[in-house]
Design brief:
The chain has one domain: Up-down Bundle (Rhomboid-like fold). The chain is built from seven helices and no strands. It starts with a helix and ends in a 10-residue tail after the last helix. The C terminus is likely disordered.
């Protein structure tokens, strides 16, 4: 079937929207880190501070705050790729997955993070998208969802080791609960399509 002009225009508008959303977020976190650099890192204190009342605000703020330009750079490419994979489903799914991951990932980190620590960075979102894309195939049981799960497993399967306690200065708590949040989103948003035999 030859795509019509209307169909091509719709694809173009969709792609433009995806660029604006992902590019806008990336631009924002880089600009925010530049502001933080000028302020001498003062914004970092606004991250998640476990089991403190003031630390609850970090649940919403942590995904856009980073501990230096190297930290932002480490999250940028993976965020764009995995975020785009989620956006390919549709904008509504992307928004809901993001909200679920932010809340579940943030609350989990707030509950079990070490006392007197601060957690921040978009890696919670990255692991949330990773968890959603992996688990979507299991909960949806459609060939399309399973194919995407396999693609993500091949490309980014190594991320799974990021949920294991290890390197000092890396918030495995954000990674773990972001991943769990992605799994929760995959379960809640599952829409069984063409059922697989078995």
């Amino acid at each position: 079937m030859i795509p019509t002009d209307e169909h091509q225009n719709k694809i173009g508008r969709t792609f433009k929207t995806q660029i604006i959303i992902l590019g806008g977020f990336v631009l924002f976190i880089w600009l925010l880190e530049a502001v933080d650099w000028v302020l001498g890192g003062q914004l970092d204190a606004l991250g998640i501070r476990p089991r403190t009342l003031v630390g609850l605000r970090g649940i919403l703020l942590a995904p856009v705050l980073h501990a230096g330009f190297g930290h932002v750079a480490a999250n940028t490419v993976t965020f764009i790729v995995l975020g785009w994979f989620v956006l390919l489903r549709n904008l509504r799914t992307f928004v809901l997955v993001t909200l679920i991951v932010v809340v579940v990932g943030g609350l989990g980190t707030w509950l079990i993070g070490p006392t007197n620590s601060v957690h921040l960075g978009a890696s919670g979102l990255v692991f949330g998208y990773f968890g959603y894309l992996l688990m979507r195939g299991y909960f949806e049981r459609s060939w399309n969802a399973v194919a995407w799960s396999l693609i993500v497993a091949v490309l980014y399967g190594g991320l799974i080791f990021g949920i294991i306690p290890g390197e000092i200065g890396i918030s495995w708590q954000m990674h773990l609960f972001g991943f769990i949040g992605g799994g929760v989103a995959a379960y809640w948003l599952a829409k069984p399509m063409s059922k697989m035999g078995g």
